[in-house]
Amino acid sequence: MAGQKGVSLKEVADKAGVSTATVSRVINSKTVVKGETELRVQKVIKQLGYRPNRVAQRLRTTRGASKLIGLLIPDIQNPFYVDIIRGIEQYAYAKNFAIVIGNFSQNEERQKFYIEILKSESVDAFIVAPFPGMNEYVKELVEEGYAVVCIDRGLANMDLDVVKVDNYQGAFDAVEHLINVGHTRIAHISGNTLIPTTIERISGYEAALNKYGIAIDRDIIVGRNSDHKSGVELSAQLLDMSNPPTAIFTSNNLLTLGALETIHSRGLKIPEQVAIVGFDDMYWAMSLNPPLTAVRQSGFEIGRITIELLHQRIADPTRPFVSIVLKTELIVRNSCGFKLKGM
Amino acid sequence: MAGQKGVSLKEVADKAGVSTATVSRVINSKTVVKGETELRVQKVIKQLGYRPNRVAQRLRTTRGASKLIGLLIPDIQNPFYVDIIRGIEQYAYAKNFAIVIGNFSQNEERQKFYIEILKSESVDAFIVAPFPGMNEYVKELVEEGYAVVCIDRGLANMDLDVVKVDNYQGAFDAVEHLINVGHTRIAHISGNTLIPTTIERISGYEAALNKYGIAIDRDIIVGRNSDHKSGVELSAQLLDMSNPPTAIFTSNNLLTLGALETIHSRGLKIPEQVAIVGFDDMYWAMSLNPPLTAVRQSGFEIGRITIELLHQRIADPTRPFVSIVLKTELIVRNSCGFKLKGM
Fold this sequence. Notes:
Two copies of one chain form a homodimer.
Chain A: H1 9-16, H2 20-28, H3 36-48, H4 54-63, E1 67-73, H5 79-92, E2 97-103, H6 108-120, E3 125-128, H7 135-143, E4 147-151, E5 161-165, H8 167-180, E6 186-190, H9 196-211, E7 221-223, H10 228-239, E8 247-250, H11 253-265, E9 275-279, E10 293-296, H12 299-315, E11 323-326, E12 329-331
Parallel strand pairs in A: 1-2, 1-3, 3-4, 4-5, 5-11, 6-7, 6-8, 8-9, 9-10
Antiparallel strand pairs in A: 10-12
Helix pairs in contact in A: 1-2, 1-3, 5-12, 8-9, 10-11
């Protein structure tokens, strides 16, 4: 920070006999009651005529009106969450929110850690995609008076503002499409079954099979984590069966990309040898081999609504909780094929 | 935070006549000198026998030893930065660093804003991919005593710890490969030319053409921003020329995905009708149509080294600055073709 008359932050610190960090804290402090150190630093600032730069000043002036929002993301490698982040940031600025992101990599302990870190850094509100085992922690945030909005899923035992999509219907549509083009032996690679989203997608898958009188075979419903590695390995496991499926419905885009890797590395043709439909569309899906049929959920729109709900919650902490459920859309491209021969 | 005897944070706040946020601040404060409010809150905490939960306590105990690191990312939509984040987080935990991410979406004003926000939130160190116009801000951070490591590019007028790749050689290898399989009319879609990385890649492109005596045609070197939209539009502009290129070298993966979208939407065959090689490999590149030939730079490894340098810098603020330049690797798949007929 270059000051008036060229006085630097470091010169102030040296003269006051404290660290630059302490000077910075004194400048930025909102506390009215001052200790001995604070008074000494302020005296030196005055003596030297130090003036912090304009951006920093404007920031301090506006921080009273602006809010710092902690955004806890389960997996930044998942393009769906990247879309949510884009939506959140696009609309956050209009509401004078600054967003700091903690990526906890689907790790429960790390999510706890980030909540505590962000609390100690005086975050004003939280946006969370709750991970298994986090119910109590998110409840505590609400009880402590933080504004909280949940994305992608809510909590089992507590009402909260939630923005999500109709996972059941999205999965149903994907599997019905596979049935309509002639498949009956349809596998499902699910995500982590402790996450409500996963369970809703399994239900939609089963409901579509039931509607068409296709028996559910538990051997071809496989799931581990909602990541790329699980997609690679579980698709290999399915294709190695003596009676492999003719089609796979994957529960998220990391699983889809993993399954595609296995299918391509074995030189299998899609959809002739194995069809695939994925939950989550990706903006490059038309450049995949072949162009991917996928269930589109708008992460960007989830982000927009999240900011709107958070804004309303901060303005009126007592307003009733709402759950916003967005429709999904099946984007039909070329990975499921058309009516199979002889069916 | 459930306390001993079931006393909640809110009860403490009510009895002290302050907000829960104030109680939380008093508990978390490292300041020795106490004001009137602080003393009152502490008295109530003692009276009620309130005890914050164990995770929070452990956190406060260890925060002296742990560091909060601000990570400023130019564009979270770019899978290359996602890889860097993964590498940084993987190794941060071993060093007792917690990472908070600010995504500034290639916006200079927003990057300034995040630096100021994170400074006011007492971040201990910064990891930055400097954006055009940010030189002075990053310099100030160093002058104010923050440990800083730059990723992907350094600053023009200041020595700093930098972790990057050999952009010149990576670009050279990609273009030489196109020449080796028979192309002579090779276009380049570059990124933002205010970013040093972009300039180094253009130099590598030109050097390869020069080595093989191919005249440089400025009409087929096009560039705007380092994003998907620019890839879509600039590739369309190239393909619309009366004398279009037979091959395109793209400067990053968002540009590559954009160019692929244009090529596929026009129904053109790769590599027969137009070849493409991209800087940046993607983990799903083998599932693209066709499997993409690409220059691989390891974002994960950049992340690992960044944490190592930051750790060393914090331990010894006076050690000499280093610039770590990692080698790239050309991954040859099927998007450039083999020796063209008649050449």
